[in-house]
Amino acid sequence: MQQKLLALETSCDESAVAVMGMEGKKLVVIANRIASQVNEHAKWGGVVPEIASRKHLEALPFLLGEVLSESKLEMTDMDAVAATVAPGLAGALMIGSVTARTLASLYSLPFIGIHHLEGHLSSVLLGKNPPELPYLVLLVSGGHTELIRVSSDRNFIRLGRSHDDAAGEAFDKVARLLGLPYPGGPAIENLASKGDPKRFVLPKGRVSRPEGGYYPYDFSFSGLKTAMLRLVESLRANGHEIPRPDLAASFENIVAEVLVERSLRCAVEEKLKTLVMVGGVAANNRLREMMKQRAFEEGIDLYLAPKAFCTDNAAMIGAAALMRLEVTNRSSSIELGVSPRWPLAEADSFYQSPPPF
Length: 357
Ligand code: KG4
Ligand code: ZN
Hints:
The protein is of the alpha/beta class. It has helices spanning 38-42, 49-71, 90-106, 116-122, 167-177, 184-192, 222-237, 244-269, 285-298, 315-327, and strands at residues 3-9, 14-23, 26-36, 80-86, 111-115, 135-140, 145-150, 156-161, 274-278, 301-304.
């Protein structure tokens, strides 16, 4: 194995640690552990930042011990230590960053700060057959819904985005409306499998341009969420039983249709022959199947992140760090802090001196 590194991810509600390696040009997941906090947050209906930080602090020492013993490696075998530094919950990011920087200092290793979205983008490289640059990425998670062009020199250019809720956030809010637990995505998917996806007609959420027309590659999910609320209220007011599986299926179907239509239109119009889908919502089966079918019809090559690496994990952070090490051979200042918001297009600044934050 040419390069090996330890990677940490603590930006939200999953504490995750991985040992990653590079064999030739191939990324290898040597050990990968996640301690999910969802049960801690489920009773509050969403992520509580203070609880997230405390749980990361409790989980990291155990996860570190586990990945080292599983990989049969010592810290002295590592070539670098990586951690997510932005965006995310500040306190939660800080736990991973301080842990990684402490280990890097103790073992005299380079520290590599990673942008969380660059991690998600890199998750597709963990598949059997990674795509060749350039390509278009649909990134659909709990915090982001974006269309990003990754150019041949690995620059990230955002071509589309949500103007309000992210797709995953819409799943979480609609799940709560339907009395389902957090996180909403898997719960809706499960209920939707028993429902009729064509029963209810729901809005596709377009974003108007001030000069007229619509932004073709942008998204809006807040109107859909309100439409679901109104639908449930009117069914209830008329004394109907709430057809939860049909509501879940119709919602899941319209979200998938919107994501598929706008992504493919963007790929075709931007003359990008390859489309990649990553992020927590990319684990959704209806979305995966619909995207496969329509991409095939459009003659677009589709690469889906492996399901196990769609939701937050440290292997994707390690993959991004190994690419940074391999391609640019640069690391971050040990003084690089964390930032709750930071554009992906400015992730290069994590490797500059002085650091941006
Ligand atoms: O990427 P991720 O783990 O965290 C963020 O960076 O946000 O994404 C979490 C989001 C949540 O909103 C969750 O409801 C959604 O992804 N999600 C799903 C599925 N699994 C997770 N949405 C739809 N279908 C799924 N199977
Ligand atoms: Zn994420």
